[in-house]
Design goal:
It contains ten helices and six strands; from the N terminus they run βαααααααββββααβα. It is α+β, with helices and mostly antiparallel strands and 279 residues long. β2 and β3 form a beta hairpin. α1 runs antiparallel to α4, α2 runs antiparallel to α5 and α5 packs across α6.
Length: 279
């Protein structure tokens, strides 16, 4: 198939239909569904809905309105994760006093404002926030918006799994999420040694899957779509395993059972440490 360097992806047009899917899902929940546990740590379905509201309101406040909240000194990735975890926990705790009806109304009113704000941005300008899980201090707007898409898709998927609703795993939804998630790999592999020209194939199976190749170049690892003529290692996994592995949704034992590595295992095994979320 040959290799093509990964390039920009423009996902803004997916936000309105993804939001409509979310609102239909939330409005169809039974009263008891809101308290169901989810795969997202100690959060219930209602807690995840509240977090989705927070995600949008923060972007409007910090981005559109240029509001700068007081924040502690952040000197490392670990500091940033700890700070975000604290913000998330404080918000979820406070919003537990809100009814599902109020949450739904706020989410529905917030979403078009976020869409309008994102649409006004130059996709190739520097984003306000770099995509830290990709090792970037500075990122283009299109990548930041892509990260926001994965956040919204992932949390809606967690709600769907918690209440037994069909997942949004058709290619139109999941392939873009995987395309963004896979951009964590060059950063994941930054300290993994290899000879220039060696490559690793990541073959994700399923309707929404694809082939991605990580190739060692002089300046480090570079991500491509497609397959090289020969790869030093091949990592095979299905699409559900892929998105869960990259979003901290699989235990290490489960990941080891579900991912197949052929060839040089030392080149394949760093996939188990890949994360495309802040954690």
């Amino acid at each position: 198939m040959g290799l093509r360097p990964v390039g920009p992806v423009y996902l803004l047009e997916l936000f309105p239909p993804l939001h409509r899917e979310l609102m239909a899902l939330l409005r169809g929940l039974a009263p008891g569904d809101w308290a169901r546990p989810t795969a997202c740590a100690a959060w219930s379905v209602k807690d995840i809905a509240a977090h989705l509201l927070d995600t949008g309101l923060r972007r409007l406040s910090f981005g559109r309105d240029r509001f700068t909240p007081q924040a502690p000194g952040i000197a490392s990735y670990a500091d940033l994760v700890a700070y975000l975890n604290r913000l998330n926990a404080e918000w979820v705790t406070a919003t537990r006093r809100l009814s599902p009806e109020v949450l739904m109304e706020l989410i529905d009113n917030m979403a078009p404002q976020v869409q309008e704000f994102f649409a006004a941005l130059d996709p190739h300008a520097e984003a306000q926030f770099g995509v830290a899980w990709a090792g970037e201090e500075y990122s283009p707007v299109w990548f930041d918006i892509g990260r926001e898409y994965t956040e919204r898709w992932l949390h809606q998927q967690q709600i769907r799994e918690a209440v037994g609703a069909p997942g949004l795993v058709a290619r139109q939804w999941l392939h873009p999420a995987l395309d963004i998630f896979m951009r964590a790999l060059p950063h994941t592999y930054q300290a993994v040694p290899a000879q220039p020209g060696q490559s690793i194939l990541f073959a994700i199976e399923g309707e929404s899957g694809d082939d991605w190749t990580l190739r060692r170049e002089t300046q480090g690892w570079r991500l491509f779509t497609g397959r090289a003529e020969a790869s030093a290692a091949r990592v095979g996994l299905d699409q559900e395993t892929a998105w869960k592995l990259l979003s901290k949704g699989l235990s290490p034992d489960a990941a080891q059972r579900q991912v197949r590595i052929e060839g040089d295992r030392k080149l394949g095994e760093p996939i188990f440490g890949a994360l495309a979320v802040m954690a």
